[in-house]
Design brief:
Number of helices: 0
Distance between the termini: 54 Å
Largest sheet: 5 strands, mixed, barrel
Structural class: mainly beta
Helix content: under 10%
Shape: globular
CATH superfamily: Nucleic acid-binding proteins
Strand content: over 45%
Number of strands: 5
CATH topology: OB fold (Dihydrolipoamide Acetyltransferase, E2P)
Oligomer: single chain
Order of helices and strands: EEEEE
């Protein structure tokens, strides 16, 4: 029996909840500058599938790589690590 490879898991912050069961997450990371070797901050916007539709803007979440859900969605929510407080 063939064993599956482990899937990538990342942590990011929700920046948009435009559609139903869809969110945008920013994943930030640091890379060294090619010439000067100083660490430079980079970020990537990922489209994520949120099955329960419970994530809100500002939440810190953990996401996992998955099969293609749509044209852009290739990630899904694993758990919500930190909820943003609701302002009323």
């Amino acid at each position: 029996m063939e064993q599956r490879r482990s899937r990538k898991c990342l942590q990011g912050v929700v920046v948009g909840c435009s559609g139903v069961k869809s969110i945008k997450v920013i994943y930030s990371y640091k890379v060294p500058h090619s010439l000067y070797r100083k660490e430079v901050q980079r970020k990537t916007v990922l489209h994520v599938h949120d099955e329960k539709n419970e994530c809100r803007v500002g939440d810190k979440i953990e996401i996992m790589e998955t099969r293609p859900m749509s044209k852009m969605k290739r990630w899904r929510v694993v758990n919500i690590m930190e909820k943003m407080p609701v302002l009323e």
